[in-house]
Amino acid sequence: MNRHQQIKKPKGLCLTDRCTKHARKSRNYCHCCAARKFAISNPICYAFNNLKQNAKRRGHDFSLTLEQFRNWHLIDAYMEGKGKTSTSMSIDRRDNDQGYHIDNIQLLTLAGNTRKRYVPYYQENPY
Questions:
Q1: Which residue among 20, 51, 105, 126 is the one 20 to 30 A from 70 at the CA level?
Q2: Would you list the DSSP string of the chain?
Q3: Which pLDDT score, from 0 to 100, does residue 65 have?
């Protein structure tokens, strides 16, 4: 059997290779594998949904639409530079008293965003 042929799995299990989780009724993939496939096929929509869910979890207003997010002039730089290192890009609110809307978001490095949190009058983005 070559590596491209699918191994038949019992009904109800996720079809992803090496995944042993159960898929919901009438689904082929478990939640984790389905979310991973969605993130790969729709990276901007996935990033938008994460931003929206984190804002909701933290109690911030969120009036940004997916269309505004897609057309934001810094979206390409954000998508290429996002990550978990100090030089990775993140989306920041200019005014922390307001929510996420198109006029209140900016691109900052994670280090700059952390610095802004601890320095109350940090206004410029030297990074």
A1: 126
A2: --TTSPPP--TTB--STT--PBPPTT-SS-HHHHHHHHHHH-HHHHHHHHHHHHHHHHT--B---HHHHHH-TTHHHHHHHBSSSTTSEEEEESSTTS-B-TTSEEEEEHHHHHHHHHSTT------
A3: 96
Domains observed in the chain = 10-41 (no CATH), 43-118 (3.30.40.220)
Q: What is the per-residue pLDDT for 38?
A: 94
Look up the pTM and report it: 0.78
- Assign 78 a pLDDT band (cuts: 50, 70, 90): very high
Mean pLDDT of 71-82: 94
Structure tokens at 79: 């998508």
